[in-house]
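Whiteboard transcription, Tuesday session. T.W. wrote the structure tokens on the left side:
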């Protein structure tokens, strides 16, 4: 059986062909019979849906992902995971690379590509840290997202909810989203 795995770091991610929809479409086009999706950061290999999928795979199955960075971000964990799959008789297909061969050259290419993916991720983190450091030099810099609503606005919205108005009604009146209202109540 051909299984597909699609992952985004956040549900809002959707650029450079990395949206869940783009990945699922590519996996369907490849011929995946079942596709597992997940919104979970790749900072760790402890992605619950991915782990469940790995445990379900059987000998002669194929695991397909669109890009290597959807599969693993560290060289060591990626090599270990793929070697475990090979040892179990499972094929691995990275759509933008091809079928990963359980041969010396296949291992070499995989290790190099995983190393590049890990390097790319660390460079992104370094650039983000550098940008944040520069931004902190501005005296008006504030950490995190800016607050959109004052305490008075939120208190008013909460009082409307307590008067029996629905989230939808309060959101329409105040312009404050339901999720923000729920957080405000906590």
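and on the right, the sequence the group agreed on:
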């Amino acid at each position: 059986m051909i299984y597909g795995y699609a992952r985004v770091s956040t549900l809002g991610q959707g650029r450079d062909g990395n949206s869940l929809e783009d990945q699922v479409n590519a996996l369907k086009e490849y011929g995946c019979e079942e596709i597992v999706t997940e919104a979970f950061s790749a900072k760790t290999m402890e992605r619950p849906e991915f782990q469940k999928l790995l445990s379900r795979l059987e000998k002669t199955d194929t695991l397909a992902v669109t890009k290597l960075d959807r599969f693993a971000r560290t060289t060591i964990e990626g090599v270990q995971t793929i070697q475990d799959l090979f040892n179990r008789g499972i094929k691995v297909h990275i759509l933008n690379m091809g079928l990963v061969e359980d041969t010396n050259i296949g291992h070499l290419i995989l290790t190099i590509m995983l190393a590049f993916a890990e390097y790319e991720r660390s460079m992104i983190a370094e650039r983000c840290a550098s940008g944040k450091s520069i931004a902190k030099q501005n005296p008006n810099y504030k950490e995190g997202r800016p607050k959109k609503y004052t305490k008075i606005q939120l208190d008013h919205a909460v009082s409307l909810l307590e008067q029996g108005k629905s989230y939808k009604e309060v959101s329409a009146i105040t312009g404050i989203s339901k999720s923000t209202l729920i957080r405000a109540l906590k």
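Someone added at the bottom: The chain has a mean pLDDT of 87.
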